[in-house]
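Hi F.,

I've been meaning to write this up properly since the lab meeting, where we talked about keeping a consistent format for the predictions we share between groups. The idea is simple: the sequence comes first, exactly as it goes in, then the structure tokens exactly as they come out, then a line or two of notes. No screenshots and no reformatting. I'm using this chain as the first example so we have something concrete to point to.
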Amino acid sequence: MTVKQVIDKRSRYNNIDISEELGLDWLNLFQQDLAFDGGPVDSFMYESVVKGVSYNLPDGFVSFLKAVTSDGKVLSLDAVTIERTSVKFGVDADGIDFSYVQVPPTLLSASDPLTVNIRYHDIAYLYMLAMYYDMEGEGDPEESGFAERYYQRYEFKKHQITSELQTRVIEPVGTTDVLPRRRGRTVGFKEFY
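Output, unedited:
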């Protein structure tokens, strides 16, 4: 979804007119708010990794997702130590593919696409409405109340989407258990009248 599409969607639901420049500013704040939970995912390949040696984190690093060695082994969290500006691995490897969430790039025009996870695109207009009513409602309790309601709705939806993205689906495991057979006992009903 592009910046223009989000602004048009917001205009469709509410008869509010804001400039594209202001919309860009608000959507940049929206993306920064979601950077940790739903920012764009990137990966970096560390070559010839030596156990215990510090390596610089990639530019724009926000949070760690996973590390996979060149032979396909996924490293446990115990094998990856992240410090302020560096990372240490607890194994030697020819290469480690380091997947991480990065800082979203700044949106510069209305044709730029949002870079946060696509599941969050539909709540961008809620964030914009909260910002609009916050800007317009200085001193007006009714519009300040609108801002608070839209922001609460945005936060609720954000946490709902984040929880859905972080929840792993566990498939049922097939078993060979056999349920016991009935012993011929039947349930009878007695007449009361």
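Notes:
The chain has two domains: 3-36+106-166, 41-102.
The longest strand covers residues 93-102.

If this format works for you, I'll send the rest the same way.

G.
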